[in-house]
Amino acid sequence: MTEADSADDTNVVPDLPAETGEEHGVDENQEYLLNRLLYRGVLPRYAFPTDVASFYVFDVAKSTDFRYAYQFAPSQALSVALSQYAPAKEVWIANKLFRSGAIFSPGRRERFEAWNEKRFYYECSNCRFACTKEREDGRKGESIDCPACGKPGTLGKARYWFRPPGFAHPVDVAEDESADELQELSYATRAKLDAPSPKPGEGTWQRVGPRVRGHYLRKHLLVTNAGPRQDGYTYCARCGRIEPTSPPTTKLSKPHPKPYPDSKQPLCPGNAAAIGVCLGTDFITDILLVNMRVDAPVRLTPGVLATEIAMRTVCEAIAKATCIELELEDGEVQSDFRSALSEGGQSGVEVEVYLYDTLPGGAGFARRAGDQLAKVLERASEVLGACTCDASCYNCLRSFKNKMEHDRLDRHVGRDLLEYLLNGTLPTLGARRESTVVRVLAEDVAPSRVGDNSRGRF
Description:
Elements: H1 3-10, H2 18-24, H3 33-39, E1 52-58, E2 70-72, E3 75-77, H4 78-84, E4 90-93, E5 96-99, E6 102-103, H5 108-116, E7 119-123, E8 130-133, E9 159-162, E10 166-169, E11 192-193, E12 206-208, E13 212-225, E14 233-236, E15 242-244, E16 256-257, E17 267-268, E18 273-293, H6 305-326, E19 333-339, H7 343-347, E20 350-357, H8 365-371, H9 373-386, H10 411-423, H11 431-445
Parallel strand pairs: 1-10, 9-18
Antiparallel strand pairs: 1-2, 1-3, 4-5, 6-10, 7-8, 7-9, 11-13, 12-13, 13-18, 14-15, 14-18, 16-17, 18-20, 19-20
């Protein structure tokens, strides 16, 4: 156990730092009607853009202890800001380099309320299914059985998760100052669906053949940044300073500079640090849930690389086909997959793709795609079959947004799966692909000509 782990076990992190309770009069049970209506999707969020986070750069010369001034305050949708403004990330503004190092909001009360509303975050180490629980329903550090892949004890360990109101460049860090060491980057996850799978008799299912059916939902999706190496962040709940937990450090558990201007008390006592914290957001939107069922010999086993490649490819193809059929801009709908939350999902015979509107609150695109599900799936198969590349390229599946998953895209595997789902055609290996596979396999198992000749390429 590292020193940082030990500090987290023994230090009780307060819901609300004591120095702010009387000063700001924060009531952790208080909830605003407008915020609740927006969160539940009763009001359209595109008319009230609440899922926005800013990156604040203080103007120290013009700031006072009571009113802050800013050189810059660019904004992004929170789901994007979780990656672009993530703690320790370098942010370029007006040809100047700044570094994210604090959770901040001009209204100090908002930051404390965000921390008071923290939840527990669970992610499966096998299939990457994720969910959050209210604190009264979970326990920090616990691991439970995964409802998606069925593996015992893989969902966890539970960590604190909260929605950051904004980010900031700490005032004690010089502009254009790069880190002494190369920082590991962290990115937000794809949007995760943790809603239960509707049973066959629930709602309206649209069947596309014997193996595919679609169902329209309006549910919340979860986006999370769990930090470099998935170790989370160390967060000072008192002043808002934050840094990656990996590599472990105890700097924020000790007195440290406050990230915002404070001429009277520039140092934070540092006795309210939480370790392994995740940052995230969730938003309600329109979702098309596509249930896919396979039979032997085809299997889509959760957590297996072959399943990841096949389903990731199908997801990208369905999202692109939807944009083509509905004449949308790229990125207005996205998709991901999970094992069905059923016995069939755990055994590898049932999997679910969920296509969703990226606009919080939804724009109706997923519902329209459900009305044309057969056409969308046929177009997805055409997208995969029309290209001439070996696996994937920017003409068919690749884009800047899926750059981290280019090695998980194979149009041949994806098309084989779609053809099987739509027409019952079992996957076959053509002569050209068979020759390529045999050649690659031979190269992989052959002794290396460089270095140790007793070892293969791996």
